[in-house]
Structure formats: C-alpha cells, structure tokens
Amino acid sequence: MKVAVYSAKEYDIESFSKVAEKYGINYKFYDVPLTVDTASLAEGMDAVCVFVNDNCNKEVVDKLYEIGIRIIALRCAGYNNVDLNACYGRIHVVRVPAYSPYAVAEHAAALLLTSIRRIHKAYNRTRDYNFSLKGLTGFDLHGKTVGVIGTGKIGKIFANICDGFGMNVLGYDKYPAPDFKGNYEDLDSILCKSDIISLHCPLTDETFHLLNSDTLKKTKKGVVIINTSRGSLIDAEAVLQSIKDRHVGALCIDVYEEESNLFFNDYSGHILNDDTLARLISMPNVIVTSHQAFLTNEALANIADTTSDNLIAFYNDHVYKNEVCYHCPKHDKCVKAREGKCFD
Ligand code: NAD
Fold first, then answer.
1. Catalytic-residue membership of 237
2. For residues 121 and 173, is the Cβ–Cβ distance under 8 A?
3. Residue 259 CB less than 6 A away from ligand 1
C-alpha cells in the first residue's frame, strides 16, 4: 500500500518510518500541506494521510477522488478540516480518535501553571542573571474554580488534574459523562463562576466562537482562558479586546483561528502579517504554543500505529476502523452501526 503523507515533519517521518515495515506500508513523505495544487502528488497512491491544518475542502476532495483516492487517513482526532459532505459516498475518512489524551490535558495544565506562576517570565529573567521577583506574584490554584467545557477524553483528564490541585471543578458538555470528576452546570454559570476556563470540546457550527464578545462579558474579571482544542472556539479579536480592557486576566492558547498558514513552520526573521496574533504574542499575560499539545513520544507512536492499522484494515480487509461519522441522511437507520462500515 502506497500512502502520501502531507505536512510531514521530522517527527512524523521518524514515527511512521518505524512502523512502516511492520504494516507493509510504503509511506511517501511530503513536507507541503495538502491543497488543490499539491493533491496531484498523491497520483498513483492508495491513500493520503493528513494532519490538522491540511485543508480537505470540496475542491481538494473532488481532486483526490478524480485521481483515485478512496481513503483519507487523518493522523489526528479532530476532523473539522475535512468536508465530510463532499466525501460521503466517495472517500472514506478515518482518524485517530485517541492517541494520548494525557499529552493534551497535561499540556493544558502546563500552560495554566506557567501562566499563573509567571514561569515564562522567570525563565527569561534568570537567564540574564536578573533575580528580581518584581511582578511575578501568582495565585494558588487550590480552592479556585475551573470550568471545563467539553468533558470527553481530554476534558476528563484535565478535570482530574485540577481535582488533584484541590480546585472546585465545574463542567459543561452536551453529553455529560457519568465519570466526570466535577459538577455539571449550564454554560452561562460556568462562564460566570470560573476563575479558569479550559476548552476541550470539538469545533462544530455550534461551538464556533463559543467565546466571543458577548460570552466573554459573562466571565469573571481576571479569568484565565486555556484553549488546547481548536482555534475557532475563540473569537481572537474579541479576546484580544477583552485583554486590552483588562477583563481577561490571562490567555493560554495552543491553537489559533488562523493558525493553518503559520503553525508548524519557522517564520523567525519574517514580518508576521497576522496583526491579531502579533498583538496577542506581545502581551505579557498571553502564552502561545503552536499546536504542540499532542507532541509526546507516546502520542506520536500511537498516531503512527493507529493510522497504519486504519489503513491496512481498509486496504486488506475492507473494514473501516475509526471511520468518521458522516451524519448522512440515513443516519437514523445507520448502515455503519449494523455492518461496521459506511457506504459501499
Ligand atoms: P472527545 O470527543 O473525547 O470529547 C469532546 C467532548 O466535547 C465530548 O464529551 C462531547 O460531548 C463534547 N461536546 C461536543 N459538542 C459540544 C458542545 N456544543 N458543547 C460542549 N461540549 C460539547 O474529544 P477529545 O479527545 O477529548 O478531544 C477534544 C478536542 O481536543 C478535539 O476536538 C480536538 O479538537 C482537540 N485536540 C487538540 C490537540 C492538540 O494538539 N492541541 C490534540 C488532540 C485533540
């Protein structure tokens, strides 16, 4: 089986090369993202493997279908970058639903601690032999209220970590989980009661700009916001304004609305064209990491393994492991639920 791997970085090449022989897959790595112009690189291949910022819009899906691709293997959990309507009935989409929820939850905790204890400031200071503590006062997490929005795999682990710190854990989810360590409340009360808000829900039409100028007004003055989920859950302009208004106390983001042309690449020495991001980065109470929450050895190994397994199951056995649900018109009488596969 020949697979075109788009947006392949050093760490992808390393982890996928390690498992290629075991699965009998010939991975061809491209450092460019999948676009309508690069889709033809997959000509003659059996599948494409893509990541979070590869844009599988209708135009790209049409092109892939035209050159004979019948499966898109996402090497991530989220699939908001794939036009599922365009794929339905033509191209199967599989993903890695969980590779290490611990990696992401622990990164969210790392961002939170770094921010509220000013570790990022202290680190830079001591490197200059500046041992002053001026401006480094933080606050205890113990006794504070954290609102976890989206209490799935990652949100639940993050809640457990917060519980370990002795925090009062609140949660909001469309589908509450029985084993969530905290109390469920409605979104508005989470917004107004929480000292810290951490986003762990997927990006959907419903969650797009979940934090916007209206909802941000409902939050506590000084609230710390953490987003390791998807950039467009937050209206970046609105949160920037709220920081300027001294309302939002700190912002920690691993994801950003307009990240797709920036993240994963080195633009040091370039002029950043995104004024909103540049302004956010200039703020002392904003921490930006470039979609690295997943980046642990354990997660990379799991991603390579599950993606290869998904591909081989499709290629050898016509089984669609971890196929994304298309929410097609036949959703009520779902074929997938009966036979374990979607269409054909
Ligand atoms: P999950 O599916 O286990 O959990 C998502 C939860 O969100 C579910 O409980 C679901 O019911 C809930 N939800 C859905 N719609 C909602 C809504 N409108 N309001 C509130 N809750 C809603 O997913 P997960 O594995 O915990 O991942 C969460 C998100 O983390 C993913 O969607 C992905 O975007 C992101 N992620 C980021 C990274 C990274 O490197 N930064 C890595 C992996 C995943």
1. no
2. no
3. no
Which residues constitute the domain of residue 6?
2-99+296-331
Report, as ranges of residue numbers, the positions in the chain whose pLDDT lies below 70.
Answer: 331-332, 335-341, 344
Supply the residue whose CA is at minimum distance from atom 1 of ligand 1.
152
Query: Do 64 and 201 share a structural domain?
Result: no
Q: What is the pLDDT of residue 202?
A: 93
Contact 249, 221 (CB under 8 A): yes
> Where would I find the H helices in the chain?
10-23, 58-66, 84-87, 101-116, 119-127, 153-164, 187-193, 213-217, 236-244, 275-282, 297-317, 335-339
Residues 156 and 172 in one domain: yes
Residue whose C-alpha is closest to residue 87's, from 111, 113, 56, 52: 56
Cα(174) to ligand 1 centroid in Å equals 11
Give the Å distance between the CA of 293 and the centre of ligand 1. 13
Find out whether 51 and 75 touch, Cβ atoms under 8 Å: yes
